[in-house]
């Protein structure tokens, strides 16, 4: 599956539609972003069951600001609408593959239970 351009208009719907969504925050002038681009595209081709989105931080400044993106490239990984990973820096292919595998293996029932506990104020 090719990468999708994400904007303020489609970002929330994309991450909430379920499944795994990886988001690359980038800009055209960013050298590390350009180096990471082919790695991200290859991962997209290898993992067709995952949504791979890209946010141009120059074009989508409000969205990047709302998500506290202060350095690019930044990769965020969502699963079933829940942010599981967010980190600045370009990843080499094997590290991106490892991240994808870790996101696949997360027990989302456990994550949702922990979120519910936090929201209810029960930290014990």
UniProtKB/TrEMBL annotation:
Coiled coil: none annotated. The active site is at residues 30, 33. The keyword Disulfide bond applies. The record marks 24 as: Deprotonates C-terminal active site Cys. Residues 1-105 form the Thioredoxin domain. The record marks 31-32 as: Contributes to redox potential value. It holds the Pfam family Thioredoxin. InterPro entries: Thioredoxin (IPR005746), Thioredoxin-like_sf (IPR036249), Thioredoxin_CS (IPR017937), Thioredoxin_domain (IPR013766). The keyword Transmembrane does not apply. One of its GO terms (cellular component) is cytosol. PROSITE patterns: THIOREDOXIN_1 (PS00194), THIOREDOXIN_2 (PS51352). SUPFAM superfamilies: Thioredoxin-like. Keywords: Disulfide bond, Electron transport, Redox-active center, Transport. Belongs to the thioredoxin family. This is Thioredoxin.
